[in-house]
Amino acid sequence: MLKLYYNPGSCSLASHAALEEAGLPYEAELIDLTQNAQFSDAYRQKNPWARVPALQIGDDVLTENIAILNHIAELVPEKALLPTEGLARARALEWLALLSSTVHVAFRPIFRPGRLAETAEGQKDVAATGLNSLKSVLALLDERLGKGPYVLGDKFSLCDPYLFVFVFWARRPILEGKLDPLPNLDAFAERMRARPSISAALAQEGLA
Predict the structure, then answer these.
(1) Fold match flag (2-79+199-204 vs 86-195)
(2) 30 phi and psi, to 5 degrees?
(3) Closest-CA residue to 110 (of 178, 52, 31)
(4) Which superfamily does 2-79+199-204 belong to?
(5) Which overall architecture, per CATH, does domain 86-195 show?
(6) Measured on CA atoms in the order 155, 140, 108, 173, is the torsion positive or negative?
(7) Contact at 8 Å (CB) between 14 and 69?
(8) Cα–Cα distance, 110 to 123 (Å, whole number)
(9) Overall pTM > 0.70
């Protein structure tokens, strides 16, 4: 049995939706980041990095969305949830890496300025600079996605729930009225919400 450790609405939502898409039996355990549950001794024994997601596979624990999404896809090869060879495989990895290392990081100055500056004034400056950077990243994403309908073109892949996480974040109240129009990303998010795997994961996390 697989066991996913998650926090509602965090980047672990991508792995949560992927498990639903794969149709694999799994358990889900809440790690409440608002209560610093990620720093508990019990959880740090499973994931010393004290982050979500983590996926327990028997006696092993896998961390990081890119690794977890790839493993889930490999468990159900008949569903072709990620390309397996050639340029198509490289393109999927390119997107996953972009989402993890560039897009995710772009939200940090907005959501957690205290990690980047100590004073209130410094945090305000970090958030302002970060907002400009985030707007550029999202605008480029909107352009690159185009009409989709999916990240890799005409076929759904596990890149899609990962991108959905960040569009979901972009529509949080803290960013309301601060971003430029993102028509392609918003249309993409609506398509994702209509997908049973995404809606199921959102419902289980209390976000539907």
Answers:
(1) no
(2) -70, 130
(3) 178
(4) Glutaredoxin (3.40.30.10)
(5) Up-down Bundle (1.20)
(6) negative
(7) yes
(8) 9
(9) yes
What residue spans define the domains of the chain? 2-79+199-204, 86-195
Question: What residues contact 190, with CB distance under 8 A and at least 6 apart?
Answer: none
User: How far is Cα 156 from Cα 145, in angstroms, rounded to an integer?
Assistant: 13
What's the token pair of residue 115?
Answer: 């990690």
Q: What are phi and psi of 97, to 5 degrees?
A: -65, -40
Task: Give the integer Cα–Cα distance in Å for 140 and 185.
Answer: 10
Contact 135, 180 (CB under 8 A): yes
Instruction: Give residue-wise pLDDT tens across range 128-174.
Output: 899 999 999 999 999 999 988 999 999 999 999 999 999 999 999 99
Query: Edge-to-edge, what's the strand order for the sheet holding 54-57?
Result: 26-30, 2-6, 54-57, 60-63
The total of other beta-carbon atoms located within 10 Å of residue 110's CB is 20
Q: Which two tokens stand for residue 86?
A: 């050639």
Sign of CA dihedral 131, 136, 141, 147: positive
